[in-house]
Each structure stands twice: as C-alpha cells, then as structure tokens.
Amino acid sequence: MADPLPPVVLVDDEPTEADRAAVAELLGRKPNGAFRIVVRHADDRSPVVICNHPLLDDGRPMPTRYWLLGEPERTMVSRIESRGGVHRVEDEIGLDVIAAAHDRYRAERDAALPEGWDGPRPSAGVGGTRVGVKCLHAHYGWWLAGGDDPVGQWVADHLAAGDGDRDRIG
C-alpha cells in the first residue's frame, strides 16, 4: 500500500514572514528572489510549491518557475528519481510530448517578465531543461500548481502507485 501524501490546496499567497522562514528552512537557504506560495498542505497550511519570479533580486534569470519544496513530497519524488524515473518517464511519454510541455512552461514564465525587459532572460523549459527531463521535482511542482504537464501527471500516478515509498524496490 502506498504511503499516503497529505492533501494539498491551490493558493496564490504572498508569503508571510512565517512562510519565508519555512521556505528558507525547506530550501536550506534564503531564496534569492521574489516568490508566491501556490500549493499548501491542506491540514497545516505549510508551503508545498512556490512560484518564483523569472528574475532573481540581482536581475539574473531564474529558469525554475515552480519549486517543489514540501515534505514528504520532495523526498518521495527523489525516491522515484533515484529508481530511474527520469529515463522511464522519457521512454514512456516521449520527447515530443515533453518538448511541448517545455514550450508551455517557457511561455508562462516569459509572460511574467516585466514589460519591456531587455536584460538576460531565463531560457529553455521546465527547470531550464532544453531536451527531455532533468528533474521530476520541477515537473511535479508545476503539475501540482495546475500546470499542463504530462511528466508531472506521470509522477503523480507513480506516487499513487507507491513508487515513492521508502521500502519500494526498483
């Protein structure tokens, strides 16, 4: 039986000071740019996914728009990755479908740039990936936040099947 994931809710919250502290603890450092909380655990309202501004505070590009940082989700997705999930999802879904998701992600992220921005821009798709899948966490985070991401859906399906459980083999 799969380890149950806590229920989550979609939000669009400006982070409070408590949220900023929780996000810094989950990341292991202070964030380098502006973000909003877009997914929370339903029970304790802790952050699960943040949506980053496409530019960091110093103007450098931030390619990762959606960042999965909640627990136990992050650990469970890491288990799927460590068990070959990146290669499996690419084989099962196909690179053309993944490329279309990257295009949708890039368009959403680029639309959030300041009007008239002519400085450096984030490039590529989900998590800055140009081809295929680099990180299941970024895809699942976008999917949890409502993104049209077949990789994120694949991760959700595999989590529901128990692939992210501690004692699952292969």
Topology of helices and strands:
Layout: E1 8-13, H1 17-27, E2 35-41, E3 47-52, E4 66-68, H2 73-82, H3 85-93, H4 95-111, H5 136-144, H6 150-160
Antiparallel strand pairs: 1-2, 2-3, 3-4
Question: Explain this structure to me?
Answer:
It is a single chain. The chain has 170 residues and is an alpha+beta fold. 39% of the residues lie in helices and 13% in strands. The protein contains 6 helices and 4 strands, in the order βαβββααααα. It has helices at residues 17-27, 73-82, 85-93, 95-111, 136-144, 150-160, and strands at 8-13, 35-41, 47-52, 66-68. A 4-stranded antiparallel β-sheet has the order 1-2-3-4. It is globular and about 50 Å long. The protein starts with 7 loop residues before the first strand and ends in a 10-residue tail after the last helix.
